[in-house]
Amino acid sequence: MTNYQIINVETLKSLLDQKKINLIDVREVYEYEEHHIQEAVNIPLSVLSEHTDQLNKDGHYYIICRSGNRSGQACQYLSDLGIKTTNVDGGMLDWEAL
């Protein structure tokens, strides 16, 4: 069972248009450098555990990857640590199709 929220890219776009949100892109650096959402901070899933001290436990983080798989893993990991997360289902593949 998941203990995080899930949204689609249309909802993410709407949120980004309305306010500043904490968006983390968990793809590898080379993927992020090829194309990313301007507001996204790159913390690859492979090194996420080394960066959790930078995350505010009172904050809420939206997590995106290529398709939604790695971001789902990141959401599960972070929510297990007590950090509120939302997975962007469809990821950058759906984002680029907007």
Jot down its keywords:
Oxidized Rhodanese, domain 1, 19% strand, 4 helices, single chain, 98 residues
Topology, please?
Elements: E1 5-7, H1 9-18, E2 22-25, H2 29-34, E3 41-42, E4 60-64, H3 69-80, E5 84-88, H4 91-96
Parallel strand pairs: 1-5, 2-3, 2-4, 4-5
Domain Rhodanese: 17-97
Protein name: Rhodanese domain-containing protein
Pfam family, one: Rhodanese
Summarize the structure.
The protein is an alpha/beta fold.
Description:
- This is Rhodanese domain-containing protein.
- The protein is α/β, with parallel strands linked by helices.
- The chain has one domain: 3-Layer(aba) Sandwich (Oxidized Rhodanese, domain 1), CATH 3.40.250.10.
- It is built from 4 helices and 5 strands, in the order βαβαββαβα.
- A 5-stranded parallel sheet has the order 1-5-4-2-3.
- Strand 4, helix 3 and strand 5 form a beta-alpha-beta unit.
- The protein is globular.
- It starts with a strand and ends with a helix.
- The model has no long low-confidence stretch (mean pLDDT about 95).
